[in-house]
Write a structure and sequence with these properties.
Layout lengths: L2 E10 L9 E11 L4 E5 L6 H9 L6 E6 L2 E2 L10 E4 L11 H5 L1 H6 L3 H14 L15 H13 L5 E5 L7 H18 L3 E5 L2 H7 L2 E6 L2 E6 L1 H6 L4 H7 L3
Parallel strand pairs: 3-8, 3-9, 6-7, 7-8
Antiparallel strand pairs: 1-2, 1-4, 4-5, 9-10
């Protein structure tokens, strides 16, 4: 299962605050290999979230192609791409308890009840929330909510996970712990992923490779060792804290 981005450009049209078109990301080419996790790393406003949303089908492309396992996704709707989505706030259903949140995608798939129950129990154990199934989501901490949201996203066995700064609202210690746990879970389930963050330590914890973005452009892609040994520009070196 390989994701290939070819010369992707996303632009936003003029609106009440802007008289001209805005380029969010420009001429992005990137490959995410089978079972690989790639982080999109860069400062706020660099285009990394716009790029991820375009992969999800939530933003239209100005130009370029998104290929997944040789299939062109240009005309494929969001819900038909088979991708899991996890955002900053988790977007849990407040009228459903924990287990029914996790089961949502399985219900949409029409999975029999017995199989749904087993899958939900397996996922709650995987994210460290065994015994939480009957809990009201309003009683959960921020970290627990994101674990539920991750379990819900993984439940339908997505072909690819897309995570858009899922821990940015949490305190640093919790972010660091969850980052390591998310990587372990994605590796354990064999799920490739694209992980958006502005925190380079978080990126290196989660990802196999990191794609550094500035001003809508992809500047450098590499492992932690590659980026630190050979930063492509002084801006990359400064952003990573390399002296």
């Amino acid at each position: 299962m390989t994701l290939t981005l070819r010369h992707l450009t996303v632009r936003y049209p003029p609106d009440s605050k802007r008289e001209s078109w805005k380029v969010a990301c420009q001429d992005i080419s990137l490959t995410v290999a089978n079972q690989e996790i790639v982080a999109l790393l860069g400062p706020s406003g660099c285009g990394k979230s716009s790029l991820l949303r375009a992969v999800a089908g939530l933003e239209p492309l100005d130009s370029g192609r998104i290929i997944f396992d040789d299939d062109d996704l240009e005309r494929v709707a969001v819900h038909q791409r088979g991708f899991g989505l996890l955002f900053q706030d988790g977007q849990l259903f407040t009228h459903r308890n924990v287990e029914r949140n996790v089961a949502y995608g399985l219900e949409v798939q029409g999975l029999p009840k017995e199989e749904r129950v087993a899958r939900v129990a397996q996922l709650l154990e995987l994210v460290g929330l065994s015994g939480y199934g009957k809990r009201d989501v309003g009683t959960l901490s921020g970290g627990e909510k994101q674990r539920v949201a991750l379990a819900r996203a993984l439940a339908p066995k997505p072909r690819l996970m897309l995570l858009d700064e899922p821990f940015s609202a949490l305190d640093r210690l919790l972010r660091e712990r969850l980052a390591g746990e998310v990587r372990e879970i994605l590796v354990q389930t064999g799920t490739p992923g694209v992980f958006v963050t502005h925190d380079h330590e978080e990126a290196f914890t989660v990802a196999d490779r990191v794609a550094v973005m500035f001003d809508g452009e992809l500047v450098q892609v590499g492992t932690r060792d590659e980026l630190f040994a050979h930063p492509a520009t002084p801006t990359v070196a400064e952003f990573l804290g390399i002296e």
